[in-house]
């Protein structure tokens, strides 16, 4: 299967001349598929690539202590496994709880992951950063924040945010609050390149609103979407930085659900997904109306789209943002949530989150939605968007056959018109992508220096790398 997946690879865009392709495949390597999650291909260059994954399992599954590990697997130029680096971030003390918070590649050499541990007996919570350097081949761990908590059950929620431009990270400690303690929170914003604090302060928020969505701007400011406590349909946007804390006014009839911060011409903007003046019913969530908000001027442009989703729609994931001149393009993916039926063995089953259809959304100079182009159907996998010149290479999935099978599709879109053209690699009379490819977007990377596209294919029990040279003509 992988052999076909490989050899059939890209003959480049169907309208381009054929180029001599070099195709390599690495040896298969196994992982603990029952425990490992968040797999992604990172730190890629002309010689090596790395697969990052996380084990974040609580309970007494296999031994006395929970499984809490960060893993970095080093692959050679052909994609064969040559080394594995493991960081166990669990404090081996009974009663100490741990949680993985998020990770981000810092530069060509480093990736940072954030974790927390909290211990009710000592009334403390602590946040750690773990920096992996491929040059050193090690994880370096440092405590970056300590908080006082009432108990393990009253420890609040820790959020880690990353700015869209990759320059900042923020730790937002949403403390447990009640009438006695008030709504007090802690914010730490860091320069992601140096991992040094930019600003750090305690903020007090009103008790009549609760936090719903957070985002970090490209200038290192935090914007909170807050909803009125109870059933009242009232929302507010609050901007917090080192020297200010203010409300951002917007149309009171607009009901935002999710915030995302971007920048254009060195100005900060918000893109909010939500609805306007719509009837709200229990269990539904609508994201079909998009607000493009200028933070500096307070000007908001609201556009209606087809991003209404189903009653199971839970979130919008922003995959990539591209700014060209005065236009902004966002590649997003819809997420749904379903709640399995309870069973005698599991009275409270965990909800199931699934990535669904992807969409390209382009905003014009004024902030209106100019184009809205679906790019794939539901498979539960993440799309990938690769930018090269004025073209976008988008991986997605589509259903084929009467039995619900799926195939991999890679299409090229010109930025101006967003007109898709199927990439067609003719292998044994079949299109390589539509018949053999099958990779999650987090496991696809493009290396411009060598014009190489890499797919890290996940099987039932193993992974295998396929590298395609001369991807773009």
Automatic annotation (TrEMBL):
* Keywords for the protein's UniProt record, in alphabetical order: Signal
Q: Give the signal peptide, or none.
A: 1-19
State the name under which the record lists this protein: Uncharacterized protein
Species name for this entry?
Chryseobacterium oryctis
- What are the top taxonomic ranks of the organism? Bacteria, Pseudomonadati, Bacteroidota, Flavobacteriia, Flavobacteriales
């Amino acid at each position: 299967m992988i052999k076909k997946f490989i050899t059939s690879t890209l003959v480049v865009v169907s309208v381009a001349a054929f180029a001599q392709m070099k195709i390599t495949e690495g040896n298969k390597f196994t992982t603990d598929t029952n425990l490992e999650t968040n797999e992604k291909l990172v730190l890629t260059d002309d010689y090596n690539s790395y697969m990052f994954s996380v084990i974040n399992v609580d309970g007494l599954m296999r031994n006395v202590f929970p499984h809490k590990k960060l893993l970095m697997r080093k692959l050679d130029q052909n994609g064969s496994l040559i080394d594995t680096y493991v960081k166990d971030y669990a404090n081996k003390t009974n009663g100490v709880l741990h949680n993985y918070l998020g990770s981000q590649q810092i530069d060509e050499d480093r990736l940072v992951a954030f974790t927390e541990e909290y211990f009710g007996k000592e009334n403390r919570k602590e946040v750690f950063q773990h920096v992996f350097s491929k040059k050193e081949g090690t994880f370096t761990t440092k405590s970056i924040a300590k908080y006082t908590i009432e108990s393990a059950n009253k420890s609040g929620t820790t959020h880690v945010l990353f700015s869209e431009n990759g320059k900042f990270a923020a730790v937002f400690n949403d403390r447990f609050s009640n009438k006695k303690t008030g709504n007090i929170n802690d914010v730490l914003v860091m320069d992601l390149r140096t991992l040094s604090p930019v600003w750090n302060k305690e903020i007090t928020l009103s008790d009549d609103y609760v936090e719903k969505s957070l985002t970090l701007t490209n200038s290192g400011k935090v914007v909170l979407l807050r909803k009125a406590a109870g059933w009242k349909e009232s929302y507010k946007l609050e901007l917090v930085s080192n020297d200010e804390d203010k409300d951002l006014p917007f149309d009171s009839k607009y009901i935002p659900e999710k915030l995302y911060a971007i920048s254009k011409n060195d100005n900060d903007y918000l893109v909010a997904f939500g609805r306007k003046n719509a009837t709200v019913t229990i269990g539904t969530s609508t994201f079909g109306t998009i607000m493009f908000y200028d933070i500096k001027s307070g000007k908001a442009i609201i556009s209606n789209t087809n991003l209404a989703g189903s009653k199971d729609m839970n979130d919008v994931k922003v995959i990539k943002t591209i700014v060209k001149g005065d236009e902004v393009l966002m590649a997003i993916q819809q997420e749904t949530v379903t709640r399995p039926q309870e069973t005698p063995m599991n009275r409270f089953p965990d909800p199931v989150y699934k990535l669904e259809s992807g969409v390209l959304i382009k905003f014009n100079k004024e902030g209106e939605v100019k184009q809205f182009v679906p790019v794939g159907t539901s498979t539960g996998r993440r799309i990938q968007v690769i930018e090269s010149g004025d073209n976008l290479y988008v991986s997605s999935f589509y259903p084929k056959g009467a039995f619900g099978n799926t195939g991999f599709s890679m299409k090229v879109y010109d930025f101006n018109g967003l007109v898709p053209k199927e990439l067609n690699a003719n292998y044994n009379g079949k299109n390589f992508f539509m018949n053999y490819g099958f990779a999650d977007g987090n496991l696809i990377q493009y290396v411009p220096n060598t014009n190489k596209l890499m797919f890290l294919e996940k099987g039932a029990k193993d992974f295998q790398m396929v590298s395609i040279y001369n991807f773009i003509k």
